[in-house]
């Protein structure tokens, strides 16, 4: 019941009020029915919406892609132990083989195919830093693949905000997320 849902919406009492709502990076369809009406109402009543990052900005996407890469001339094979690299390569080959069976008819109907999706997610994996490869591998599951094509909650809300002609912005820059992750040493990853 909507009335029984716990709200993760904080209100900053001022005139007009401000709200703070924490999102999660999962396809919005997984959580949308569990978001209380007070949170949805606050979103719709707001004139300006700020997100963690501006996922509708091409620069943000480009910068996120660039920050994941190892320095020029380095490859993952150079930085991972041989056995881990070999197991990773075998696992990605297995994923590529399995992905066609994981795709939904709805995804195929929208022109989303396994080879395209695999390349979109794992393309250039040999040039990525280990922490980003770890995050990539964690997203290469049957459940996650079946939900590809559905925007994550942040992106869905950003697209809704644009469609509703709300002013939007971001509270972080890509570099503020990228540098701490890239600063992790191999044992931390």
UniProtKB/TrEMBL annotation:
UniProt GO molecular function: metal ion binding; metalloendopeptidase activity
Entry's cofactor comment: Divalent metal cations. Mn(2+) or Co(2+).
Protein name per UniProt: Metalloprotease TIKI
EC number: 3.4.-.-
Organism listed in the record: Buceros rhinoceros silvestris
Bilayer-crossing regions: none
Compartment(s) where it occurs, according to its Swiss-Prot or TrEMBL record: Cell membrane; Membrane
Protein's membrane topology: Single-pass type I membrane protein
Gene Ontology biological process terms from the UniProt entry: negative regulation of Wnt signaling pathway; proteolysis; Wnt signaling pathway
Pfam family for this entry, one: TraB_PrgY_gumN
């Amino acid at each position: 019941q909507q009335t029984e849902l716990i709200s993760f919406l904080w209100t900053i009492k001022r005139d007009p009020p401000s709200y703070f709502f924490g999102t999660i990076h999962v396809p919005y369809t997984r959580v949308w029915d569990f978001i209380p009406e007070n949170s949805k109402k606050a979103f719709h009543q707001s004139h300006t919406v700020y997100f963690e990052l501006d996922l509708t900005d091409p620069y943000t996407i480009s910068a996120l892609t660039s920050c994941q890469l190892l320095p020029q001339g380095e490859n993952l094979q150079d930085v991972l132990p041989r056995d881990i690299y070999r197991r990773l390569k075998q696992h990605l080959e297995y994923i590529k083989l399995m992905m066609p069976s994981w795709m939904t008819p709805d995804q195929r109907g929208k022109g989303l195919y396994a080879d395209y999706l695999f390349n979109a997610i794992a393309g250039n994996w040999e040039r990525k830093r280990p922490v980003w490869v770890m995050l990539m591998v964690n997203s290469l599951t049957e459940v996650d693949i079946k939900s590809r094509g559905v925007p994550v909650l942040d992106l869905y809300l950003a697209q809704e905000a644009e469609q509703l002609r709300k002013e939007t912005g971001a509270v972080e820059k890509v570099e503020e997320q990228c540098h701490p992750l890239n600063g992790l040493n191999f044992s931390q990853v």
